[in-house]
Amino acid sequence: xxxxxxxxxxxxxxxxxxxxxxxxxxxxxxxxxxxxxxxxxxxxxxxxxxxxxxxxxxxxxxxxxxxxxxxxxxxxxxxxxxxxxxxxxxxxxxxxxxxxxxxxxxxxxxxxxxxxxxxxxxxxxxxxxxxxxxxxxxxxxxxxxxxxxxxxxxxxxxxxxxxxxxxxxxxxxxxxxxxxxxxxxxxxxxxxxxxxxxxxxxxxxxxxxxxxxxxxxxxxxxxxxxxxxxxxxxxxxxxxxxxxxxxxxxxxxxxxxxxxxxxxxxxxxxxxxxxxxxxxxxxxxxxxxxxxxxxxxxxxxxxxxxxxxxxxxxxxxxxxxxxxxxxxxxxxxxxxxxxxxxxxxxxxxxxxxxxxxxxxxxxxxxxxxxxxxxxxxxxxxxxxxxxxxxxxxxxxxxxxxxxxxxxxxxxxxxxxxxxxxxxxxxxxxxxxxxxxxxxxxxxxxxxxxxxxxxxxxxxxxxxxxxxxxxxxxxxxxxxxxx
Length: 482
Ligand code: ADP
Prior knowledge:
The protein is α+β, with helices and mostly antiparallel strands. The chain folds into 4 domains: about 5-110, PAS domain (Beta-Lactamase); about 130-235, Beta-Lactamase (2-Layer Sandwich); about 240-325; about 330-480, Heat Shock Protein 90, CATH 3.30.565.10. It contains 13 helices and 19 strands. The chain has helices spanning about 20-25, 30, 45-60, 105-130, 145-155, 165-170, 170-185, 235-290, 295-325, 335-350, 370-390, 425-430, 445-455; strands at about 5-10, 15, 65, 70-75, 80-90, 95-105, 130-135, 140-145, 160, 195-200, 210-220, 225-235, 330-335, 355-360, 370, 400-405, 410-420, 460-465, 475-480. The strands form 4 sheets. Strands 1, 2, 3, 4, 5 and 6 form a 6-stranded antiparallel β-sheet that branches. Strands 9-8-7-12-11-10 form a 6-stranded antiparallel β-sheet. A 5-stranded mixed β-sheet has the order 14-16-17-19-18. The protein starts with a strand and ends with a strand.
């Protein structure tokens, strides 16, 4: 901390005061300059001080003031502060001045001034970042919000409100997440950090508004006492992310469509000529059977031709599928826990992160042998489907639980992904793995069929639990590497 310094002339007038001295005395520079130094001395000591000053000027030398006595400074608010003062004579252009260096020894004052400095810094940061401040009193369940924070939360927010009202300012879809962040922040075993991104319930202009919060809990006697933090409006960033995501989704959909068109054209190309031949042979057979007498030989030749051409079409198709499948899948030994975490990160980055997650990983799970990109793709598909289903139904506390464990009695891992969305009715359930089956207005219906093919290509199985009634529950297995 910079020491407080006052330069005083022989008449006892202050001629210079640094900012620390202004802060300590509580006067602005203008008021201090020209002020008699005794104005900073409590009334009862003023006369004594004037005599002391006159004596000192006769024999000026560098020394501490007060001979170990408690020296008091009277600040502008009328408070007395204990100070250490050291005096040094300075001659400037033949004029004598005394430089008084003051150090507050009042503990409370020091703490307050350090706090004030911190508060000033925080204020500057807060201004620069456009952040609002909240201060949650965890004991009494109340929240203080500064003006900017109230502005972020909307009209209803008061300066000092109940914690429940604070939660009510968060969008219903994000409220459970916000409570979970709060619970984790006050959990003594965690690090007390409060970090989250939430939508607001009452956006000022009825468009979607987002805030990001960052705070820290303070604990006392093993309990969280308060959480102080800042919140920023991140709507612009979120909108940008959403736009980018939408573009990525559109590109992906277009790509899937192109793949489907090219595949369908290849199939059509391969089976078009055998089909045309089947049709021609069919007509010949039809004619041979409709004349009188029936031309059995011709009909037989034509039907033989039909069979041959149909078989040829089948062979062509097998060749095509064989060609597509013969591309060797690169596999490696993988930590399935890590892949699940990566897939979760990807879905959150893709804009599908608005759910509560119950993650049950097994740190000592043996490695699986599979293709990283394909397995991640399957997981992302399943999680995205779950989010889309819950979104479509406006599920308030949307949850996804992911569990990984060893399939009992097998050398395989089993991953379970369940959501609390609408689930799938019995009539639909048998069709969801069919290519191009979709119930979504902009769906393409290939996600599950591709996912199943990918898991099977990696030596596992993918299925849905038909008896699960609280949403949808998918499982897939993968063989262990050893
Ligand atoms: P798409 O997502 O393009 O529709 P999918 O093959 O991934 O294609 O899914 C097929 C259909 O399965 C979906 O349209 C939906 O009806 C149903 N479905 C998949 N996952 C879920 C889920 N978690 N909850 C409810 N329905 C689902």
